[in-house]
Amino acid sequence: MGLPMARHLHAQGFSVQVSDPDTSRLSLAQVEGIKVSKEITQDIKQADWIISSLPNDDVLLQVAKLLQLHMNSSACYIDTSTVSLKASEEVLNLIGPTGAAYLRVAVSGNNHMAELATLTMLCSGPKDYFDKAQPLIKNWGPHVFYLGEAEQARLMKLVVNLLIAQTSAMLAEGLTLGRLGGLDWETMWQVLTSSAVGSPIMKAKAQQLGKPLGERDFSPTFTVHQMLKDISLITSAADQLGAKLLQTEMTKNLMEKAVIEGEGMSDYATIIRVLERQVALGE
Q1: Are residues 53 and 119 in the same domain?
Q2: DSSP 207-234
Q3: I need a labelling partner for 218 at 20 to 30 A (CA). Which of 25, 64, 124, 149 fits?
Q4: Angle, nearest 10°, between helix axes 23-31 and 2-11?
Q5: Cβ neighbours for 70, distance < 8 A, ≥ 6 positions apart
Q6: Rounded distance, CA 273 to CA 176, Å?
Q7: Are residues 130 and 164 part of one domain?
Q8: If you compute the radius of gyration of the chain from its CA atoms, what whole number of angstroms results?
Q9: What is the C-alpha to C-alpha distance for residues 126 and 146, in angstroms, rounded to an integer?
Q10: Of 91, 123, 150, which one is at a domain's C-terminal end?
Q11: E-assigned strand segments in 80-214
């Protein structure tokens, strides 16, 4: 999501420089007139705001160690990644002694929503820096929530993703039950999206899947592998906080079965097909 987020800031007149190990992403940024950092450590020293969108805990900690060495004490680090509570706490331990601020701005949404600037921002960290960051953050979407001084943003993102994962499991079981009983596939989707359970995520999935059976689209908005990464973060947080997530563990098993069956790069809703295959329902 980093490139579209940088693009929105650039479009609003902010001075933006980007860095990425993927040179193809840097080329795309340059095409759009966004500057590419030539000397990352020097640019870090001069930056007022440092923003990252990273794939996992390990990379986050690598970046934090770099910032610990080079960012100035009046700067603020904003990380938008989906990472563990533990890793985020470690970042604070690295950044805090420098005097710089650390804002956690977890974003809820997919790449398409990032392109459209319709993400939801879940924020925690120093309230004064959150207030100062509003002109930046509001460029990424219309909904911004301040949740507290510590790791509340990270936890809220995991709560949201838990419910998204569980929606796919709920659909898998409900739709499979309906098909076994002779209900029409397209009609079920029409009823569901018009009923009390017709949430935004349900309606979005209906656009992909509520077509005739042979035309269903399981191209990824979020892959099974990506969802398994998030479920791992969710269950890790549950262990840390002493929660029992029995349904989430069952959903994790379905996702893992999808990977075994060769669908790890399909949309996470492909667990619908996993259950269908278990009961030999064809398209």
Answers
A1: yes
A2: HHHSS-GGG-----SSBHHHHHHHHHHH
A3: 25
A4: 20
A5: 41, 44, 45
A6: 9
A7: no
A8: 21
A9: 10
A10: 150
A11: 101-108, 120-124, 143-146
DSSP type of residue 203: H
* Residue in the block written with tokens 């207030």: 131
Residue type, 217: D
CATH of residue 247: 1.10.1040.10
Same domain? For 6 and 141 the reply is: yes
Using the structure block, give the residue that is written with the tokens 């790449």: 111
pLDDT at 272: 97
H-run or E-run covering 79: strand 76-79
Shared domain for 115 and 172, answered yes or no, is: no
Q: What is the pTM of this model?
A: 0.92
By percentage, how much of the chain surpasses pLDDT 90? 93
Tokens of residue 66, six digits:
């770099």
Beta strands in 149-217 (DSSP E): none
Closest CA to 21 of 8, 41, 4, 37: 37
- pLDDT tens, residue by residue, 120-179: 999 999 999 999 999 999 999 999 999 999 999 999 999 999 999 999 999 999 999 999
Which of the listed residues 121, 150, 179 is the one where a domain comes to its end?
Answer: 150
* Overall domain count for the chain: 2
DSSP single-letter state for residue 10? H
CB-facing half-sphere around the CA of 282: CA atoms within 13 A? 0
Cross-strand pairs, 36: 18
Domain housing 66 = 2-150
Does residue 283 lie within any of the structural domains? no
